[in-house]
Amino acid sequence: KTKGRPLIVEEIDACTDPQRRCGYCYAMLEVLRSIHDKARRPVVLVGMAGVEKYIAARTQLARRIQQAVRFAPADVEDTKIVAEVRCEVGIDDGLIQKLHADTRGNMGLIVVGMSDIEQFGRTNRLKVVTAEDWGERAFSFAVDAWKRGGRREDI
User: Engineered SS bond to 138: which of 38, 89, 107, 144, CB 3.0-4.6 Å?
Assistant: First the structure.
């Protein structure tokens, strides 16, 4: 039986990248396995697509995996919910649609764009930022690069 709060490890790719195969990477995965076994607490591994192949090849680790979850891009409704929960400044539906389209549902970039909108709203003392208020501004360099077809690695 597990107990306690989960340990969330992001960027697990750093320990699984074939170009970085080293004693350090193997040791780090062994430490995570040991934490899972001894502390009896869930360990959540977060990584890019493809990381599951490396983990599956390490049977001692793979047999402890209870579930693999693949995240899909956010939809407009997800974007709206995040804006309502996260932002102190309101964002109208038209601007939510623009943000979603420009980021292609990439949640990391959606949050970056929301920060830009929030800053703009506070600077201009707006309670709600509309698509008309925002105009043709780019959300940020990262969002603009992604919109132009940039790869995740370029951001």
Answer: 144
